Amino acid sequence: MKKVAIIMGSDSDLPVVEKAAVLLKDYGVPYVMRVMSAHRCPQRVAEFSRNAEKEGFGVIIAAAGMAAHLAGAVAANTTLPVIGIPIKSGMEGLDALLSTVQMPSGIPVAAVGVNNAKNAAILAAQILSLSEPELSQRLKDERVKMTDEVEEKDRRLQK
Ligand code: RP5
Known about the structure:
By secondary structure, the protein is of the alpha/beta class. The chain has helices at 14-27, 42-51, 70-75, 94-101, 117-128, 133-158; strands at 3-8, 31-35, 57-65, 82-87, 110-111. A five-stranded parallel beta sheet has the order 2-1-3-4-5. α4 (94-101) links the parallel β4 (82-87) and β5 (110-111).
């Protein structure tokens, strides 16, 4: 299976980002986590992104806060799908959300909601599941479980 790269702009993002790692591990999806900043080490980000496909990565998750340019800087250097996680610091994360999602035409970043590392992991798994039948089934099973849980909550409310 191809790997997921989970990169973050600072280790201060780790408490949010590690939720993606926990979920990918549970799915049996191989991943690596790295800290690299679009602003503090731009060359490293560019080099990592350019080499990611030949290093066996299938998806890149990039998390950053404030002027969150990491996902965009990665996307500028690879045609692998890039999922951006805007990290909340100030401004309820709106600064990071807009910095992540407002990409120029031609260089897309698939942004999830503010701090939504879980959705980033699920989306990465969904992308890889296109060529991984077992992973695809696991994701379908999770959906059924989710539906059952909501229906159970609804039933409890009727008592
Ligand atoms: C961003 O600036 C990082 O992704 C982090 O969310 C924020 C603050 O970084 P630190 O000053 O805590 O390293 O680039």
